[in-house]
Amino acid sequence: MDRCAGIDWAKEVHKVCVLEADGGPLVERGIAHDERGVDGLCELLVELDVKRVAIERPDGVLVRCLLEAALVVLPIHPNQLKAARPRFRAAGGKSDSFDAFCLAELARTDHHRFRVLAPDSDETKALRALTRTREGLVRTRVSLTNCLHAELEAFWPGAERLFCKIASPIALAFLERYPSPRDAQGLGEKRLARFLARHGYCGGKSAAELLARLRSAPEGRAEEAEEEARRTAVLSLVAALRPLLEQIAVLNSRIAKAVRAHPDGEVFLSLFRDPGSTLTAAKLLAEIGDRRERYPTAEALAADAGMCPVAKESGKRKVATFRRACDKRLRDTLATLADSSRQHNPWAKDIYLRARGRGCDHPHAIRILGRAWVRVIWRMWRDGVPYDPLKHGGRRRLDAAGG
Questions:
Q1: What pLDDT shows up at residue 131?
Q2: Do 232 and 288 share a domain, yes or no?
Q3: Residue 118 lies in a domain
């Protein structure tokens, strides 16, 4: 046994518990989340010769400081900590200090059951920051776009149906110029044609067709005060969406350059037919990382990605349930890969169709296909070799059978 510590992290004050090798408490205190407090904590743990530190998160400033101090960090999932509390307190009580004690005990007695935190390279961290920032901006864009749809549907349905995407640059430019039916009263075919030419419209519809689409929609029934208020709301949403779209485009460009420059970039880019399909490849690389010891087996990667079920067995009852405790970003990205690959890859299409034939619904079939892709991706990732259909055993067998 070695001295171990548990840290219940917080926004302002972290609770720290250090245990002796025999389990006796050595230090129990609160540490302020500032430069002096975090540095003092690391110095204390090094001075006490603490061998392992358990904490409920795998990243953040505190975790980086612990790693820089050459301390072994064990990231503990909140569900695992929740399940461990009854081992030490039957009454069901909970406090930050008690959580720090439970974490220290897990690090002392059960450290062999947890993976040691292995930080990724700087290139992977940078790529992860870019992809997650873009993901947040896309969620905001979707939310604002839905608000814009709702406003237009309420008082001007024609403008909503004029272009294919309401959040496209030309649709936003149109709404900025004509934010209400009253602003578009004098809009004719020639004026609309000049507007389309000025903004580089490439949708393939003539000005007459678009104008007919605009006028065929139901007319708004909003009265003067309401229409003016909704006009202001439309202009506000357009003003919020335009810079958002620009920043998403900037991030797309940065992500494409970053994933191509990454040492493992070609491994993940080789999974996609289109050379421009960099976003999904970048998210896969960012979430899986570049530390090979993190996933010693393909099954470990499949479990972390939520691509395999959770088995529950009790007596004669055996069921498999949906895995909720997983990396949801990685799960969504693998699902995107699986769904797109079944459109052009005969091996992926065969796995998907056979799953559907067994009665699986679409999401279940996608997870089955995703798990099959995990085995391929894991081997590519471990060997650092891009995807080659000629070396893919499942696809070769399908091709030999005439599939």
A1: 97
A2: no
A3: no
- Of residues 22, 21, 19, the one with CA closest to residue 5: 19
* Integer angstrom CA distances of residue 176 from 166, 194, 331: 12, 16, 38
* Domain limits for position 356: 268-400
Q: Exposed/middle/buried for 79, CB within 10 Å: 0-12, 13-18, 19+?
A: exposed
Same-domain pairing of 147 and 236: yes
Task: Tally the domains of the chain.
Answer: 3
Q: pTM of the entire structure?
A: 0.88
In this structure, the answer to whether residues 216 and 304 fall within a common structural domain is no
> pLDDT by residue (tens digit) across 78-100?
999 999 999 998 888 889 999 99
Q: Are residues 252 and 337 in the same domain?
A: no
- How confident is the model at residue 340, as a pLDDT? 93
Q: What is the pLDDT of residues 341-383, one digit of tens each?
A: 999 999 999 999 999 999 999 999 999 999 999 999 999 999 9
Mark whether 207 and 288 lie in a shared domain. Answer: no
Q: Count the residues in the chain.
A: 403
Q: How far apart are CA 175 and CA 231, in angstroms?
A: 9
Q: What's the rounded Cα separation, in Å, for the pair 287 and 224? A: 51
pLDDT digits (tens, 9 = 90+) for 23-45: 999 999 999 999 999 999 999 99
Domain stop point among 91, 113, 135: 113
Q: Are 381 and 292 in contact (CB under 8 A)?
A: yes
Beta strand 72-75 pairing with 52-55: parallel
Dihedral (C-alpha) 340, 172, 181, 192: value to the nearest 10 degrees? -100
Domain check: are 311 and 215 in the same one? no
Sign, Cα dihedral of 89, 107, 120, 40: positive
> What is the Cα–Cα distance from 135 to 200, expressed in whole angstroms?
28
Regarding whether 250 and 129 lie in a shared domain, the answer is yes
Report pLDDT digits (tens) over 195-209: 999 999 988 889 999
Query: Cα separation of 276 and 69, whole Å?
Result: 41
